[in-house]
Automatic annotation (TrEMBL):
GO terms for cellular component: extracellular space. Residues 17-197 form the TGF-beta propeptide domain. Gene3D superfamilies: 2.60.120.970. Keywords: Disulfide bond, Growth factor, Secreted, Signal. This is TGF-beta propeptide domain-containing protein.
Length: 258
């Protein structure tokens, strides 16, 4: 009983000390710690001549970058949110033909999208492998090649045997990196759904130099050959995310197609 009473008295004493520690007390403590008699008055000319030590500046920049990186990681993407729904998987594609700069992949879409549902987002995931040799002999007058442009086209086979293509996504891919790269092919799925839906969906992957406007002869051959994409079927994945259409809306829940 005495120990409980002592604990209560200690808490009361601490509470009184905290309550009695005012803003002025805090200011006086800081001034005493810094060896100052009053709060310094900073003028504009003082700020103009202010010199920040390099190690302090570097520390601030590193902390700022770390803060931005944590902030980006803490904000989940829509694809990540929908991908987390259990019981869903990706669709594998099948290559029709491929060469150094162009690859055609086909997705069987029959019965993949449930009735009265519409696709809200679609992702094509490709696996990029870095080249074995990082150092490439530079040619005189050419800057080092670090990126290649990868473009995704929707292909519509026409009845006369020709093809009609539409660009749906294009971005620069670093040559010397390895990993999965995602492309937004939502527009391609919309194109396919408005055309002959009984046919598979055809996509083409085009690999070009960093600046397609420059003729290929002006580019080192490594600008294309160094961007290697796996051509085995299981590497290609198409993720579809859909919601009930307005006619039979059951809420805002998202689904990923199995």
């Amino acid at each position: 009983m005495s120990s409980i009473r002592a604990a209560c008295l200690l808490c009361a004493a601490l509470f009184a000390m905290v309550k009695g520690f005012t803003h002025e007390d805090m200011k006086d403590a800081l001034l005493k710690k810094l060896g100052l008699s009053e709060v310094p008055r900073i003028h504009k000319r003082d700020l103009e001549n202010l010199v920040i030590p390099t190690h302090i500046k570097n520390k601030y920049v590193s902390m700022l970058k770390l803060h931005h990186a944590r902030k980006r990681r803490s904000l989940p993407s829509l694809a990540g949110i929908l991908r987390g729904i259990p019981g869903n998987a990706d669709i594998s594609g099948e290559f029709v033909y491929s060469d150094t700069t162009r690859q055609r992949v086909v997705f069987e879409m029959t019965s993949r999208i449930p009735e009265n549902n519409e696709v809200t987002m679609a992702e094509l995931k490709l696996f990029k492998k870095a080249p074995h040799k990082r150092s490439v002999p530079e040619r005189k007058g050419h800057r080092p090649v670090n990126n290649a442009r990868v473009s995704i086209y929707w292909v519509e086979p026409l009845k006369d045997g020709s093809n009609r293509t539409s660009l749906v996504d294009s971005r620069l891919i670093p040559i010397h990196e390895t990993g999965w790269k995602s492309f937004d092919v939502t527009q391609a799925v919309h194109y396919w759904s408005k055309s002959r839906m009984e046919m598979p969906m055809h996509l083409e992957v085009w690999i070009e130099g960093e600046r397609p406007a420059v003729t290929r002869q002006k580019w080192p051959s490594v600008s294309v050959s160094q961007l290697k994409i796996q051509t085995t079927t299981h590497w290609e994945n198409l993720s579809l995310f859909f919601t009930p259409s307005a006619s039979r809306s059951l809420g805002k829940r998202g689904f990923k197609l199995c």
